[in-house]
Design brief:
Spore Coat Polysaccharide Biosynthesis Protein SpsA, Chain A, 18% strand, alpha/beta, 231 residues, 7 helices
Length: 231
């Protein structure tokens, strides 16, 4: 967690607040969080999972734009926030999305053992693969006015939310920047069948049960391909 917070402290852009949502960790971590000074704030309570914690952060935040950084993940460099919020035209868009780089033992791409960069897309391809990663995406807070992360989906609630936004024709500005480095050993990178089944269900919920067999075939193909790459 400390390296994540340090990557925020080191930003040349300073006009932000940070809410650390802690699910009741060790006494040592609690002591570290208690010693943080503004613009860092924290709340420590038992939660119902990753997306429940993110929803708590959404409610506590006061800014116009929201960004979600996982414990152990880091902003790519000290100028990334300045590059975005001082030099990019932000009118007429509700999403800003860039690349991320994975670091860790797990290879998160079914088509390559070595390629660790996740590129971004905002097109109908999102029905095949999630084109945005929450560590590479900035969301206007108003997007969460009527919806928050659906904790029914324990691993892919961000995918469900992104699909909702795409269906609603939400404007997304794609930038040629690496936003963050992320741990490839995270929950959604384990590639278990439960995650792929969740993908089938969320896509069916947002479209029609008629397409469920099609989504199932896609998910099973991705599951087997990942097994081949990682084994």
């Amino acid at each position: 967690m400390q390296k994540s917070i340090d990557s925020l402290k080191n930003q040349s852009f300073k006009n932000f607040e940070v809410w650390v949502i802690d699910g009741g960790s060790s006494i040592k971590t609690q002591e570290y969080l208690q010693n943080l000074e503004a613009p860092f704030f924290y709340q420590s309570n038992i939660d119902k999972g990753i997306y429940d914690a993110m929803n708590k952060g959404i409610h506590l935040s006061k800014g116009k734009w929201l960004y979600f950084l996982g414990a152990g993940d880091m902003l790519y460099n000290s100028t990334i926030l300045n590059n975005i919020f001082s030099h990019i035209e932000l009118q007429n868009t509700s999403l800003i999305a860039g690349k991320i780089i994975y670091e860790g033992d797990t290879k998160p791409f079914v088509y390559s053992r070595s390629k660790m960069i996740k590129n971004v897309h905002w097109s109908h391809r999102i029905w095949l693969t999630n084109g945005l990663h929450h560590q590479g995406t900035f969301y206007k807070k108003e997007l969460f006015t009527d919806n928050i992360y659906n904790i029914k989906y324990k691993t892919l609630a961000d995918y469900y939310f992104n699909l909702q936004l795409f269906k609603n024709n939400t404007k997304c500005k794609i930038i040629d920047e690496v936003i963050a480095t992320c741990d490839s050993n995270g929950v959604s990178k384990m590639g278990g069948w439960d995650m792929y089944l969740e993908e089938v269900n969320l896509k069916s919920d947002l479209s029609s049960v008629v397409f469920k067999p099609f989504f199932y075939i896609i998910a099973f193909t991705k599951f087997l391909s990942r097994k081949v790459v990682n084994d």
